[in-house]
Amino acid sequence: MTIDITVTINGRLYRASVEPRLLLSDFLRDTLGLTGTHVGCEHGVCGACTVIIDGDSVRSCLTLAVRADGATITTVEGLGTPEQLNALQHQFRECHGLQCGFCTPGMLMTGMDLLKKYPLATDDQIREGLSGNLCRCTGYQNIVAAIRAAAALRNETTP
Ligand code: FES
Ligand code: FES
Asked: Domains in the chain, please, with CATH?
């Protein structure tokens, strides 16, 4: 049995027939080829699979694709391009907020959600907001610095 879903991802409308048990992470990666969303633990622990659904950061490995029917989703592919990084991506590069890059898509999506909810985010708020995203490389300091810098720049340029 399959179920028809319609979902808007990174501004593009997709229609698909999916099995009820298909995970959103697998739908994004395997069905649509949006492999920027990474899958680490598949148990909701590492945060690598984080995407934004209807304005909130969500673990796509804990979400069924059918639950996304009618939703608007942003994945890391929707943030910027290699030629034109968005402001947060740019700060990750400037602040050396990544090493192997496996956690980075999830960190970016969580960071985007954080910046929306706490435009004047303190370091404590950034650290708490990132507490559900695991990184095995960076020690987190430069990730926090990147989000802090993006917040500061945003507030400088926002009247
Ligand atoms: S792969 Fe989803 S939280 Fe780890
Ligand atoms: S940069 Fe390697 S896991 Fe975070």
From this structure: 3-78 (3.10.20.30), 87-157 (1.10.150.120)
